[in-house]
Specification:
Layout (H helix, E strand, L loop, with lengths): L3 E11 L18 E14 L2 E2 L4 E8 L9 E7 L4 H10 L7 H9 L2 E2 L3 E3 L1 E6 L4 E6 L4 E6 L1 E2 L6 E2 L1 E4 L12 E13 L3 E17 L16 E3 L1
Parallel strand pairs: 5-6, 5-7
Antiparallel strand pairs: 1-2, 1-15, 2-3, 2-4, 4-5, 8-9, 8-16, 9-10, 10-14, 11-12, 13-14, 14-15
């Protein structure tokens, strides 16, 4: 098993109502799940390949609840990555080299479509709970805004904290809940949603990301863009 580690800002948007039931081991809002993830790696490596600065994304679909499996995904990697980085990232996220989150994703998503290598425009601001991602020429697009009160519509904050969880692995093991204004997926997995769930977080993953030799970055400014 190879040694690897990545950290950075992360987005997970899906077709559920805000406050995704999957975080609480409940069934998806509509009985099935379709959505996307994206992450910009601010620091990371796979063996001796530096992954710092690489952005990746992916679209996903499950016919029922995630734990029932039979899902499909399409990986997407920013075209600015080198061939070595693309190959290394594919191995890191394959579930073959540790990290419970990616091991589980690989198990419940047995169908993997050919990857898309295209420019990725990605930005996450945790302080305002806003974000965006665009892959290539409309392969995948999503815009995220903060949740808001009813009257007045002031910004509204909801944090989900899962101690010892496998996905929200930042310093406080928590994630911001936000509103995906839309998700448009036109690659191998096609769907479109409006006003659905979004999760925004700083995360760390790897073969043993809690090992102190990796010296995880302390987030002082919760913003990344490329």
């Amino acid at each position: 098993m190879a040694e690897w580690y990545i950290e950075g800002l992360y987005m997970k948007n899906c077709n559920c109502d805000p406050g995704c039931p999957c975080d609480f081991n409940q069934r998806p809002t509509q009985g099935y799940c379709e959505g996307m993830i994206a992450m910009h790696i601010t620091k990371g490596h796979f063996e001796d390949v530096d992954l710092s600065g690489v952005t990746f994304a992916g679209s996903v679909h499950w016919p029922g609840a995630l734990h029932e499996g039979n899902g499909e995904m399409q990986p997407m990697i920013d075209s600015s990555a080198s061939e070595a980085q693309i190959n290394a990232l594919a191995e890191a996220l394959s579930g073959k080299h540790g990290d419970a989150f990616f091991e589980v994703v690989a198990f419940v998503c047995p169908t993997v479509h050919d990857p898309v290598i295209a420019p990725i425009d990605f930005g996450v601001d945790l302080a305002t709970r806003t974000a965006h991602v665009k892959v290539g020429d409309g392969v995948l697009e999503s815009e995220v805004d903060t949740l808001r009160g009813i009257d007045p519509p002031d910004p509204y904050q909801i944090l989900v904290r899962i101690p010892n969880g496998m996905e929200y692995t930042g310093p406080n093991e928590e994630a911001e809940t936000a509103l995906a204004q839309y998700i448009r997926s036109k690659g191998a997995i096609k769907f479109e949603t409006q006003n659905s769930h979004s999760t925004l977080a700083f995360v760390r993953h790897g073969s043993d990301f809690r090992n102190p030799k990796f010296k995880p970055t302390v987030v002082e400014k919760a913003f990344a863009e490329r």
